[in-house]
Amino acid sequence: MDNVSIVRIFTLSGINETMNYRLTIFALTLLYYCMILFFNISLVTIIIVDENLHEPMYILLCSFCINGLYGTTGFYPKFLLDLLSSSQEISYEGCLVQAFVMYSCACCDLSILAVMAYDRYLAICRPLHYHSFMSKRKLSALVCFSWLTPFCIFSINVVLTSRLKLCSSNIQKLFCVNWIIVKLACREADAFSNSVVAYLTIFIYVFHGFFIIWTYMHLIRTCVRSTDDRIKFMQTCVPHLISLVTFLVVIVFDLMYMRFGSTDLPQSLQNFISIEFLLIPPFMNPLIYGFKLTKIRHKILYLVHVGRK
Predict the structure, then answer these.
(1) What DSSP state is assigned to residue 264?
(2) 127 φ/ψ sector (left φ>0, alpha ψ -120 to 50, else beta)
(3) Which of 116, 124, 155 is closest to 226 using CA atoms?
(4) What is the pLDDT of residues 275-307, one digit of tens each?
(5) The pTM is what?
(6) pLDDT in tens, 244-255
(7) Rounded distance, CA 21 to CA 17, Å?
């Protein structure tokens, strides 16, 4: 028998317990998704339109918000349709695409956060060399790195998963996740390659984490010596640090639960744990940066003042 899946449709059974409240959940989810779109698109538009914001820190923030839009668009429209549908199904190909979007979005977030940490390290610890290290060409290369690395890794992941023969079509989540699809593989299916790529991915992004820790060790050491650097740290690094801690908490919690968590928890709680990274960071990040970064805050206040006239 060829080592290819005969499953063509997956059932997303994670939504079953919420069906009694689906109209209420639909209305709240639609409102929440519209707010995510509004905040992120507004911030991206402000950065693109205002030439004074065409600096590395703001361009990276723009990339961060675009990734938030990318990830949430991979989940919310399908979830809203499922709430209005009598059957919650997704095609085999659609499931692989959604799994790719979910994983690549999460890892792209960490890659962008690592590049943002490097940018703040250069700006505060090596200010005289900042413009030579963060030239337009190097900035473009770093942005491409933060997007292409997870895209390439998870393209390989999805291709390997697509070769597995599956013996079940029931996914007990609200959306498709690559690890869950691999767990549906028949016993005779060879998932060794998937495991190797999974551990390689973990190693790469753990290295991202250590790099961020290294940059902040230097940042804190530098800021202790200078009042000006402490002010700059509070203005530009605190939003990044809040985004980083929030992201790591929700992602690590979700991964730990997905791998080792109990299935005895109520389905609604399991659902909340699984979508935390699509609920909190995409909504919170534009608000934090919008209020904390002086140039963006002044631009928003200016637009609000003009709009009132």
Answers:
(1) T
(2) alpha
(3) 124
(4) 888 898 899 988 888 777 777 877 777 776 666
(5) 0.88
(6) 888 888 887 777
(7) 9
